[in-house]
Design a protein that fits this description.
Strand 7 (112-122) and strand 8 (125-133) form a beta hairpin. 27% of the residues are buried. This protein is 12% helix and 48% strand. It has 2 helices and 9 strands. The protein has one domain: Beta Barrel (Lipocalin), CATH 2.40.128. The protein has helices at residues 20-28, 70-78; strands at residues 8-9, 40-43, 49-56, 60-68, 88-97, 100-107, 112-122, 125-133, 136-145. The chain is globular, with a radius of gyration of 15 Å. It is mainly beta and 147 residues long. Strands 2-3-4-5-6-7-8-9 form an 8-stranded antiparallel barrel. The two termini are 25 Å apart.
Length: 147
């Protein structure tokens, strides 16, 4: 199943508040493929997917599935998705603060896209959360850098 893609229930929702000038500085800085720490390859918690994050038009961040386990691929086919590899999972994430991004995440087993946010908690960990309504009814996963 692609249940590993559907994000796990978060115990609580909280936001990191930054000084407005700090936020503006991050929003003004262009996304650099070689310099931005969120750009790279990341694995989901079960190790069944690898996603490569990369710059997208409009100074946004996107993420495309570059590897999927046989089990994850089979589950995708059951959900009427021909393949996971090459599927854009993360769409149009905009920097909203230090290591914090907001955009949309595609959940393949549901065939739907949800509002989402990414928080880079360490150099090797991202917390990816999806919410049904604003910042309510959220689920989260911690993804790990590959290589």
């Amino acid at each position: 199943m692609i249940a590993s893609i559907a994000l796990m229930l978060a115990a609580s929702a909280h936001s990191v508040q930054a000084h407005p000038l700090q936020v503006q500085a991050f929003q003004a800085r262009p996304l650099q493929a070689t310099h931005d720490p969120v750009v790279g390859r990341w694995s989901n918690p079960k190790g069944t997917l690898a996603v490569e994050t990369h710059p997208c038009p409009g100074d946004t961040l996107c993420g495309t599935i570059v590897w999927a386990s046989a089990h994850a691929e089979a589950a995708a086919r059951q959900a009427k998705l021909p393949t996971l590899v090459g599927t854009r999972l993360l769409h149009a994430y905009r920097r909203v603060g230090a290591g914090h991004w907001e955009g949309r995440v595609f959940v393949p087993d549901m065939g739907r896209t949800f509002a989402s946010h990414i928080q880079q908690t360490t150099a090797t960990e991202l917390t990816i959360s999806q919410c049904l309504v604003g910042r309510f009814l959220c689920k989260s996963q911690v993804w790990h850098r590959i290589g």
